[in-house]
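Entry:
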Amino acid sequence: MYRICVIPGDGIGQEVIPASVAVLKALPLSFSFVDADAGWECFQRRGVSVPDETLAEIRSSHAALFGAVSSPMGKVQGYKSAVVTMRQQLDLYVNLRPVISLPIASARQGVNMIIVRENTEGLYAGQEERLPDRAIARRVITVRGSERILRYAFELARRQQRRKVTIVHKANILKETCGLFRDIGLCIAGEYPDITTEEMLVDTAAMRLITDAEKFDVLVTTNLFGDILSDEASALVGGLGLAPSGNIGEQAAIFEPVHGSAPDIAGKGIANPLAAILAAAMMLDHLGEPAQAGHVRQAVCSVLMQGVLTPDLGGTASTGEVTAAVIAALRR
């Protein structure tokens, strides 16, 4: 039996995560689901965005499903992003975002890449200060952090029989931080002669995602660059409503839709559950259930081809109707 920690979070997370759980329950697998609390609403109730017991539940589970989190734009005393907290406290150093064409009119066909993003340091390390006349953020790039994310990308490429890894950086300007990441990447690349390696400046990569997305295979980069590029890339294949992600470490893993909490539509029953359902499929791969993961993805594709779509994709279906259609497709 797989023990899964379920963290709906804020906003539409409370609608799409139950949808993904319903899909998992329709599979011929045994699950135990344990609910846990995290997010902005949790902070408002309890004074902490991720309680210690939530971290303990994640550690004691085979994996976790997380919905979305709302974060205030301004500084709030005592608040720290729930997502960043979980990534750092659990050392979830890999952020994995597949970008794969789906059978929908808004998706560009022929795209099949994985963006591998360092998930615990860089400009998201949380080392910022406000001075009277300026604000300063430290960009932390370490040897350990770079080595393990770059090696993960090459191992992933080899495991999935992918042919190329693109190392994305800005070493022409950020000569120390990106320079370190680049140097380590090129050194590790030498250990994988069966995989083609290329390096690319981040601004060039942003352009090439628009002009030549089909030519990317595995793309590996630092935290902020990966965050921006993966959101950009999701627009190629249907948008954030179809974009799943995984946060993976040595001892824990959390899978989530890429989209945010969408407070403008929360509670209306029209949130697109497919990103959360595809995140559950990623979780199944992680658990060593690739056949069941494939069944879930096939069911999602079937629903898209049937035209059962939520408003963000141009349809009129509700969250519940899309979820029911996926479950029906699984049972056919």
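The chain has eleven helices and twelve strands.
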